[in-house]
Amino acid sequence: MRMRSIKNLGLAAGMASLLAVGAPAIAAEPPPVSVGLIAPMSGIYARPGQVMRMGAEMAVKDINDQGGIKALGGAKLKLVVVDSGDSTEKAKSAAQRMVADFPDLVAGTGAYLSSFTLAVTEVTERAKLPMLTLSYSDQITARGFKYIFQTSATAGRQADLALPMILDLAEKASGKRPKTVAILTDNTAASLSSVKAMKDGLLEKNKLELVVDETFTPPLSDASSLIQRVRSRRPDLVFFLPTVISDAKLILEKMNETNVRVPVISFGIAIAEPDVLNTVSPKLINGVMSAVANWGAKGQEALIKRMKDEYNEPWMTQNAISTYGDMWIIKAALEKAGKADRESVAQAMRTLDEGKTPYFPGGELKFDEAGHRVGATLTVIQWQNGVPVTVFPEDVAIAEPIWPGQK
């Protein structure tokens, strides 16, 4: 009986050996590649951060569904989300935790506000972690850092780009080029910074005469005197820079009440966030424009629809589309590097030359020595029928611009 058992064991072992030799080898799945998103997920800036997360999640899914990183054997991306909190101090601490807790991160994106990005990148630079950002501050890429890459035009560059774009749009839409402008701005730092750039030579450079110059302290209690000045001077354009939505509502209401039909141009996305409609009616804000660093545009209709279907977001802001695009930049760098380590990915980003990018306005998927995306420009959006849509440049416009006084 014992001999039979030994023979059976030997037979089984032999068969197993034959099966092992004859069976094709099954390749092990490559380990995932960790990429980071550091942005506010709590506090007063949570909503923009959450929208950035939506964009990142969509991109990671698309990249993985399309075969992952082919240069790494089809390795999948793994998204690591870190809450920066709602202050500079919290953002810096979050960055320190991120590089300590996730040493396998090969690249990241973030951190929404420029002040947060400046703090975060002090940490990520020391860790040699390549970071992409949509933040605008000129300081971000003026510190000689080697691991920061700015996809948006810088704040200084945006001011220089915005005026000629708006004037070109005005001429296209109305048939004449504006010559006079009004500025209505609150006295917050961001607003005054944009106004300073205009007054320090941009208006003169673009042959614009400033006929109304009004600065107010938010929140406004009465906009009558401001709008009376606009009505009496009849400028061709109004540059409108509020940071409090109630002020925007008050001024737009007063313009409507007094029949002041002047094109209104803002800067940045504050006037185009979905929660604006909680305060300002679609009819009142219809036609208002804003120059922004990025926005859902032509060619991205499927992504915009997915934002609605999967996340119940009414449109795709710059926070979502830029973060979506950042994940594709990281993929391109990984494909070029052929390695999942920080230094290789950073070097690949520095030498990327992928031609025109579909996820950012203007220019190429290429960075200069300072980390600026080459040729980065702006998008002009306009409220139309309750939705802020891209109207300029023409090659990415979803809708034709409308102009006050036109049918």
From TrEMBL:
<dbReference type="InterPro" id="IPR051010">
    <property type="entry name" value="BCAA_transport"/>
</dbReference>
<keyword id="KW-0029">Amino-acid transport</keyword>
<feature type="signal peptide">
    <location>
        <begin position="1"/>
        <end position="27"/>
    </location>
</feature>
<protein>
    <submittedName>
        <fullName>Branched-chain amino acid ABC transporter substrate-binding protein</fullName>
    </submittedName>
</protein>
<dbReference type="InterPro" id="IPR000709">
    <property type="entry name" value="Leu_Ile_Val-bd"/>
</dbReference>
<dbReference type="InterPro" id="IPR028082">
    <property type="entry name" value="Peripla_BP_I"/>
</dbReference>
<feature type="domain" description="Leucine-binding protein">
    <location>
        <begin position="32"/>
        <end position="385"/>
    </location>
</feature>
<keyword id="KW-0813">Transport</keyword>
<comment type="similarity">
    <text>Belongs to the leucine-binding protein family.</text>
</comment>
<keyword id="KW-0732">Signal</keyword>
<dbReference type="InterPro" id="IPR028081">
    <property type="entry name" value="Leu-bd"/>
</dbReference>
<dbReference type="GO" id="GO:0006865">
    <property type="term" value="P:amino acid transport"/>
</dbReference>
<dbReference type="Pfam" id="PF13458">
    <property type="entry name" value="Peripla_BP_6"/>
</dbReference>
